[in-house]
Automatic annotation (TrEMBL):
<dbReference type="GO" id="GO:0046872">
    <property type="term" value="F:metal ion binding"/>
</dbReference>
<protein>
    <recommendedName>
        <fullName>HpcH/HpaI aldolase/citrate lyase domain-containing protein</fullName>
    </recommendedName>
</protein>
<dbReference type="InterPro" id="IPR040442">
    <property type="entry name" value="Pyrv_kinase-like_dom_sf"/>
</dbReference>
<dbReference type="GO" id="GO:0106064">
    <property type="term" value="P:regulation of cobalamin metabolic process"/>
</dbReference>
<dbReference type="InterPro" id="IPR040186">
    <property type="entry name" value="Citramalyl-CoA_lyase"/>
</dbReference>
<dbReference type="GO" id="GO:0047777">
    <property type="term" value="F:(S)-citramalyl-CoA lyase activity"/>
</dbReference>
<dbReference type="InterPro" id="IPR005000">
    <property type="entry name" value="Aldolase/citrate-lyase_domain"/>
</dbReference>
<feature type="region of interest" description="Disordered">
    <location>
        <begin position="1"/>
        <end position="42"/>
    </location>
</feature>
<feature type="domain" description="HpcH/HpaI aldolase/citrate lyase">
    <location>
        <begin position="147"/>
        <end position="358"/>
    </location>
</feature>
<feature type="compositionally biased region" description="Basic and acidic residues">
    <location>
        <begin position="11"/>
        <end position="28"/>
    </location>
</feature>
<keyword id="KW-0479">Metal-binding</keyword>
<dbReference type="Pfam" id="PF03328">
    <property type="entry name" value="HpcH_HpaI"/>
</dbReference>
<dbReference type="InterPro" id="IPR015813">
    <property type="entry name" value="Pyrv/PenolPyrv_kinase-like_dom"/>
</dbReference>
Length: 427
């Protein structure tokens, strides 16, 4: 249950006196009328119909303020957990207390945020500081295996249907590079319908939207936000605020709080801002290398030329506990070269690889999974350590090597990954 502080004095005082905001005095246009609507939210009591009035008044706030939700700290029901520290105009809270009256129990753990858009300052809403302080439940990212994540064109219904039979851990239904400009709207509707239809079993379904800087990106996001997909892939991420904007739109659209954001880093600016990107929002749970675009930007052709960039992103992702996936291998007929790149990626610290052809799924699954020997060793390390603790031994060795707590933690991760992969079999 969230602990909610009282409303700021300027807003609470005026609403108790029943004063209406004057758009000419409080801010022109939408800001002034939004504040007036905010005051209506404060004037309700326990009378019948209060909930409906509250909902109606909040709709007016949204309409007057431009239709964007912003928050300082939003509970898990809105942003998938974690603390969202973007600047905003303060928050009206409905959840866990009786500050506003009876509907707090009906809207338990639900927050409604004041609306901001460009040009609407906090003073226009009568807010001098944020209204509350709350600690949201931590967002728990999926621990689903991502050894093989296959791109599929969002304009190809047959391919997306075939994806239901493939052994990939995940599918990225692509609305960006794989779709011609004149097919964007058609593909958007097709992907939305396909995901809602379901049938993908335990495979993770991610939808790559167009960049929000394009004419199609926001329409993509708003349509598929509630489709039931596991994640939204955001291309060409260079700054944290791009991720925050996607998060805000997902919240506004009422997306499942478990819906993740996967960020593609594929430009020099993105590489140099990898720490900022990877550290942005718990919901931003997976980082994908866009090696093709990065090679184009750097004007290089060899994998070796990308090594520094790859390792910078892996370091940043691991710093924040994010899953990180290697980029695609373009020569689908060169399975030997693909296998070599997979092993190299695993040694760099990647958790899996993005793919462009089904023929590469099996290899990626095998390479990015722990081997039978690794699983056996992991189980034995855990057993040896536990036995040593029970018997009071100070030093533990396995196959002649010292075993410390960090080795046990690594072994537990191997066993957990193996168990998750076994669960995927027969999917």
């Amino acid at each position: 249950m969230h602990e909610v502080a009282a409303l700021p004095e300027p807003l609470r005082g005026e609403s108790e006196r029943g004063e209406r905001a004057d758009p000419r005095r409080e801010g022109e246009g939408s800001a002034g009328s939004a504040r007036s609507a905010v005051h209506r939210l404060q004037r309700h009591d326990h009378r019948a119909g209060a909930v409906e009035e509250f909902q109606s008044a909040w709709t007016e706030v949204l309409r007057a303020g431009g239709g964007k939700l912003c928050a300082h700290q939003v509970p898990a029901v809105w942003n998938g957990g974690g603390q969202d520290r973007r600047k905003c105009g303060g928050t009206l809270v409905v959840g866990g207390t009786r500050t506003f009256g009876m509907w707090f129990h009906l809207f338990c753990l639900f927050e409604i945020c004041c609306v901001l858009r460009e040009g609407c300052r906090r003073k226009a809403f009568g807010l001098s500081k944020r209204c509350f302080s709350a600690t949201a439940a931590p967002f728990v990212a999926s621990n689903h295996p991502r050894r093989s994540v296959l791109y599929m064109p969002g304009s190809n219904a047959r391919a997306m249907e075939k994806g239901k039979t493939l052994a990939a851990d995940g599918l990225i239904l692509d609305l960006e590079d794989a779709v011609a400009i004149n097919k964007k709207e058609e593909a958007r509707k097709m992907v939305n319908e396909q995901v809602r239809k379901g049938g993908y079993g335990l495979r993770e379904i991610c939808i790559r939207i167009n960049s929000l800087d394009t004419p199609w990106g926001e329409d993509d996001l708003r349509l598929v936000a509630t489709s039931g997909c596991n994640a939204i892939a955001l291309p060409k991420v260079e700054r944290a605020d791009q991720i925050e904007r996607v998060n805000a739109i997902l919240n506004e659209c009422g997306a499942d709080p478990k819906t993740e954001i996967w960020s593609l880093i594929e430009t020099p600016r993105g590489i140099l801002n990898a720490d900022e990107i990877c550290g942005c929002l718990p919901r931003n749970s997976c980082i994908i290398m866009g090696t093709s675009d990065l090679s184009k930007e750097l004007n290089v052709t060899s994998r070796r030329a990308l090594q520094l960039s790859l390792q910078m992103v892996v370091l940043a992702a691991k710093k924040y506990g994010k899953v990180v996936l290697d980029g695609v291998y373009l020569n689908v007929r060169d399975l030997e070269g693909f296998e070599k790149e997979c092993w190299e990626g695993k040694e760099f610290g990647f958790d899996g690889k993005t793919l462009i052809h089904p023929s590469t799924i099996e290899l990626a699954n095998r390479i990015f999974a722990p081997s039978a020997t690794e699983v056996e060793d992991a189980k034995n390390i855990i057993a040896c350590f536990e036995e040593a603790e029970r018997s009071g031994k100070g030093v533990v060795t396995y196959k002649g090597k010292l075993v410390e707590n960090l080795h046990v933690v690594m072994a537990q991760k191997v066993v957990q990954q193996h168990e998750l992969i076994e669960k995927m079999k027969g999917n």
